Each structure stands twice: as structure tokens, then as C-alpha cells.
Amino acid sequence: KAGVTQTPRYLIKTRGQQVTLSCSPISGHRSVSWYQQTPGQGLQFLFEYFSETQRNKGNFPGRFSGRQFSNSRSEMNVSTLELGDSALYLCASSLSQGFYEQYFGPGTRLTVT
Amino acid sequence: GESVGLHLPTLSVQEGDNSIINCAYSNSASDYFIWYKQESGKGPQFIIDIRSNMDKRQGQRVTVLLNKTVKHLSLQIAATQPGDSAVYFCAEKDTGNQFYFGTGTSLTVIP
């Protein structure tokens, strides 16, 4: 069974731009969660989608948004990029809602210049 | 936010020895805990989890212990192997359905 895939793997953007990251969950998984990982803040939860609905949200500004499609694939969007948004963005999928037995993708490394 | 911290940022063990990685958490209402392993260039990998109604849970070569009295979580790895070298994170879910990760402990296995 294929694992969680994320595209692109690497991305360079400039301040003020927007970016869209994509995540394809493991087949049959309906929950997708997004996380930001930085050396300073560690791993932080962004949001969780289940059955195309955002079920849970971490403490991030409204510039961070996401959506989930009917095939469970998910996208995350960051608008008006700031230097501090440079991070590894990870998505994780699971069968059910709520952080249980999540499987992570390799992440998208975003660099904002 | 919640405080999920680790006592030691780095840990070195001899191959074949047992490893113990510790984690302190601050929210006594947290009801679910997970240990993850992250190798360089990869996303975190689920190792083992435990719910707050349990004190101990065992997997293959790993054991998680939960002490709710002192809000402490530990991961024990038996017969540590070079492939166990990685950063280990604990994470907790609170009853408000928020999820917090610790800062991580880097485990190095010396052959």
C-alpha cells in the first residue's frame, strides 16, 4: 500500500506570495492533518480535515487555510508569506478522525526569501 | 499553549543496551499520548500510543509507561539497534482535542 505523498517536496517563495501544498493520504484514510515543523517551535498542529470538513484547528493565523476533496486528498494554502513561514510542512493521514495512528508523509520544505 | 517537554535533548547508548527516553507533560486532562520516531529527511513515524486509562503498553521491542501522578511519559527501547538512531517525539492530545508535540530527543546508537 502506498504511503502518504506530498508535493512538491521543496519550494522557494518570496515574501508576500502565496503557496499551495498538496497531500495524498493512504488509500482508505479519510482524515488528513497538517503540521508545521521548525527548529525553533518544533512540530505544531495546523488543522485536521475529515470527510471534507475541517474538524480541528491549531493556533495559526487565518493566512493558513486548507481543504479536503471527496477523494480525501488535501491541500494547504498559505497566503501573504512571511519569512517565519519557512518550515517543513507535514501532512498525516489516518483512518478515523482525531490523531489516532497517524501516518506522516515526507513533508514539503518551504523556504521564504 | 501546553508544555510537552523532554528531559534530555540527546541520548547516546551502546548497541544492544536498553534506551529510555523521557517526556514531561503539563496538562493533567490530556487523555492520549503518542511516541513518534523521526529519521533525517523523513516524516515522523508512529511507534506506540497509550490512553490515559492505562499505565503501560508494550509493542515490539518498545514499551511506553505513563505516570499520571507526576505527568510523565517514557519510551523504553529494548536491545537498541543502530536503526533506532533518530529523533523521538512524544505528543499529547488534550480533552479539547488539541495536539501538542514535545521538542524531541536525539538518540544515537553507538555500534
What is the structure about, briefly put?
Chain A has 113 residues and is mainly beta. Helix content of chain A is 0%, strand content 53%.
Plain-language structure description:
Chain A is mainly beta and 113 residues long. Helix content of chain A is 0%, strand content 53%. Chain A has no helices and eleven strands. In chain A, the strands form two sheets. In chain A, strands 2, 4, 5, 6, 9, 10 and 11 form a seven-stranded mixed β-sheet that branches. In chain A, strands 1-3-8-7 form a four-stranded antiparallel β-sheet, with no helix packed on it. Chain B is an all-beta fold. The radius of gyration of chain B is 13 Å and the shape is globular. At the A-B interface, strand 5 and strand 10 of A face strand 4, strand 5, strand 9 and strand 10 of B.
Number of helices of chain B: 0
- Average residue pLDDT of chain A: 94
The H/E string of chain B reads EEEEEEEEEEE
Largest sheet of chain A: 7 strands, mixed
% residues in beta strands of chain B: over 45%
Oligomer: heterodimer
